[in-house]
Amino acid sequence: MKVRPGQVIRLSLFCLTGVACASFVANTLSVPVRGSTDSYSFEFTDVEGLNPGNPVTMSGVRIGRVDSVAFADNGGGTSKAIVDVEIESQYSLESDVRAAVRYGDMLGARYLALTQDDSATTVSARQLEPGDTIPLAQTTPPINLTALMNGFKPLFAALQPEQVNTLTRSFVETFNGQGQAMTTLLDQIATMSSGLVDRQDVFAQLLTNMNTLLTSVDERQPELVGLLDGLNDLSTSVVGQNDQLVSLLDQGNRTVSSLAQIMAGSNGAFGQTVQQLESITGSWIASTDEFNKLLANLPQFADAANRIGSYGSFISLYLCNFTLKAGDMEANIFGPTHSPVCS
């Protein structure tokens, strides 16, 4: 295969361009410290999320970067983290300097913020030498926002997404050292909590009803267990007869439609029938003792009638009327309503 010089040149230019772009991206991401630097070490109990390359700031100005993060034994079965940083040589650190790991943005990026104790006198504070270590007493680990936000889950469930975003942003700004955000944070909490306070009567009634419901369920635990067992048996039977169930559902529409037509054509007769049934059942309930006596005497009456018929005698029974009614139509199949016998 013959390779042309032009192809080699174009391939070389493409490779050089790719290497240059990769170097440019790497330099952009690494953000090196300009000029000469001094190294210092900070001890932390926790540096979750802090990585090499994260910026080091003082009064909001970037003065260095994190060089490395290492694990170390703190004795007594505990551990600590050693954070090595590079600080521009033009900036000097005092022995009373304090360091805190803070959130850089909503995505969880961290940075190391340094502050000087303004209340300390120049006699008590000395200038740190390169390589010195700042102890645990002068460092603050990052806030675990995940655990903090989980504590507000019940509140977030009652809020709109926009309100949750505003509250979360206020939390992040507050823990980033922006004190002016504290007022906004408190205002947001007060506004969002006022809606819950206005509905405390509803919540109290809901809790009371839930307590009553749970008490009833506890008292009827055997019935509930039986109901669940019955539902389990029913579901098992239904699963074993899928074809019949599908057929029933397919025909259910036609059946319900026919029933609706019958109900519509009854012209109120169905409602009257239900009302009459209510009257009948009311009479039965009021005469329960007499009805029980009737049922108890029916076997004796049947035996007497059987003995009468066994000797060749006859028992004459005459049905006065038997009326069928459908809508406005009424028919007595045994003759007129008032016969000579049943006058």
Keywords summarizing the entry:
single chain, 343 residues, alpha/beta, eight-stranded mixed sheet, two-stranded antiparallel sheet, 10 strands, MCE family protein
Can you list the strand order of the major beta sheet?
A: 7-1-4-3-2-6-5-8
**What is the SS-derived class?**
alpha/beta
Work out the helicity level.
Answer: 40-55%
Total strand segments: 10
Distance between the termini: 126 Å
Counting copies of identical and different chains, the oligomeric state is single chain
Described by the principal axes of the CA atoms, the overall outline is elongated
Q: Give the number of helices.
A: 10
Beta-strand content estimate: 15-25%
How many structural domains can be distinguished in the coordinates?
5
- Average pLDDT score: 77
H and E order:
HEEEEEEEEHHHHHHHHHEE
Major β-sheet, in short?
Answer: 8 strands, mixed
Which residue ranges are poorly predicted, with pLDDT under 50 across at least 5 consecutive positions?
none
